[in-house]
Amino acid sequence: MRLVIARCSVDYTGRLNAHLPLATRVLMHKGDGSLLVHSDGGSYKPLNWMSPPCRLDVVAPSEELAETGVTEMWKVTHQKTGDALTVHIYEVLHDSKHDLGIDPGLIKDGVEADLQRLLSEQVDLIAEGAKLVRREYPTAIGPVDLLVRDAGGMPIAVEVKRRGDIDGVEQLTRYLDLLGRDPLLSGIQGVFAAQEIKPQARVLARDRGIRCLTLDYDEMKGIDSGAPRLF
Question: Is the full-model pTM beyond 0.85?
Fold first, then answer.
């Protein structure tokens, strides 16, 4: 990656035209060929950019541009659309290159697999005295996240989401319909568990006879048991 801090102006031409007047900005030329133009503000969003596949050519300015103070021109052309991003550089304040290597990607904390694993280890949150039968219990349309039995032996199917919405309730409803046809799972109940459950999902779940369980991920990570939060 090449990072350049420069006084520059930027022009984008193609499906739309845009102009950034002369100012000090960060030019980020990444290993994938993309160029991003950043200011000291706007958080992560660049002022303008060119996404790959594209090509960067550094050219000398014309005499007319040189007289205005332009020392160098960057022309980044998209190889499919022909759109062009032209950077007129007046002064370079910093120029460095860095090899960042291969990025392992974002690892999210609190994804559904983590919630499912934690809840399988803390099934008392579902029902006091409950015991885990199996994670990823199979049905004809896919596995339900958890199958447990309460202290009295009643089967409970649990669907786990980070954010619970109507689609999740509908999904659990279909699982319950199929599982309820098994004589060994007669009378099966449903629990919809999520870190956050939308009000519409709660209403639908209540209408379907499904209980809702709000999961506190931080608390589940730090303790072996906790108080159930059923609504």
Answer: no
